[in-house]
Design brief:
The complex is a heterodimer of chains A (about 70) and B (about 180). By secondary structure, chain A is mainly α. Chain A has a domain of about 25 residues. In chain A, about 65% of the residues lie in helices and about 0% in strands. Chain A is elongated. By secondary structure, chain B is mainly alpha-helical. Helices cover about 70% and strands about 0% of the residues of chain B. In chain B, α3 packs across α4 and α7 crosses α8. Chain B starts with 6 loop residues before the first helix and ends in a 5-residue tail after the last helix. The chains are: A mainly alpha (about 70), B mainly alpha (about 180). Chains A and B meet through α1 and α2 of A and α2, α3, α5, α6 and α8 of B.
């Protein structure tokens, strides 16, 4: 069985420690772009919202039931 | 302030001021990037994870407690973003032994290297990240605990379990010193 020292030696030989100090390019524009990206709403979400709205119009008494569970 | 940061700067960040956000980004970018590279071990992926981490920090800025360290809070967010990346990468691709752009390691035997990578990949992610940071990157347990938001005792226990599992897996693969 491999002892701890041998195991650590094998690990460090196979997986060198990362010595990278900084990104290769300026990532601030990418962060800004990400922050300003519009939140995408999928068609499934819109469909679900539409179903809930229709259900509430047809059965308004369900409102409190939904409000309790949401 | 725990990081020696200007309280007003942090306050402006929490309120969504982009100039304050950029100042903090410039100040912490390198430290967070180094931490992410240690976890994901791939420079190109680290770029994406860094952007994701800062975006998450900006999105969650209202939850930042100004009495605590901004750097530690950011590192925790970056660790979670890196873990999410590793989870996603595990689903789609084989785990990388090392990025091609990382420094070349002295590899006495490619088969052993691949076996060790295989043994690493077989670890549960929560043990793999701790093993990477503690055993390969030799980071202090307290830093790992802080980044994972776990007690130091839990980190020690995970290192022990990871070591035991790796030793067992390497023995199973027939790797002997």
């Amino acid at each position: 069985m491999i002892n701890d020292d041998q195991l650590f030696h094998l690990l460090r030989t196979a997986l060198p420690a990362a010595d990278t100090t900084a990104p290769s390019r300026d990532l601030w524009p990418a962060v800004v772009q990400r922050s300003e990206a519009r939140i995408e709403v999928s068609s499934a979400d819109w469909s679900l919202a539409a179903l809930v709205a229709i259900a509430l119009l047809m059965f308004p008494e369900w409102f409190w039931f939904l409000a309790y569970h949401l | 302030m725990p990081d020696g940061l200007d309280g007003e700067l942090l306050e402006r960040f929490v309120q969504g001021d982009q100039t304050a956000f950029e100042t903090l980004f410039r100040q912490f970018e390198a430290d967070v990037y180094r931490w992410i590279v240690r976890i994901v071990r791939d420079r190109s992926a680290a770029d994406d994870v860094l952007v994701e981490a800062f975006w998450r920090a900006y999105r969650g800025r209202a939850r930042f407690d100004a009495s605590r360290s901004f750097g530690a809070w950011l590192r925790r967010i970056a660790t979670n973003a890196a873990l999410d990346h590793l989870r996603e990468a595990r689903k789609h691709t084989a785990w990388r032994i090392a990025d091609d752009t990382m420094p070349a390691a002295p590899r006495p035997d490619q088969a052993i290297t691949e076996s060790i990578a295989l043994a690493f990949r077989s670890l549960p992610l929560k043990l793999q990240i701790v093993a990477t940071l503690a055993l390969v990157e030799e980071q202090p347990y307290s830093d790992i605990a802080d980044a994972l938001d776990l007690p130091v005792g839990t980190i020690k226990s995970r290192v022990f379990r990871a070591t035991r599992a790796l030793r067992k897996e390497l023995a199973r693969l027939g790797i002997t010193p």
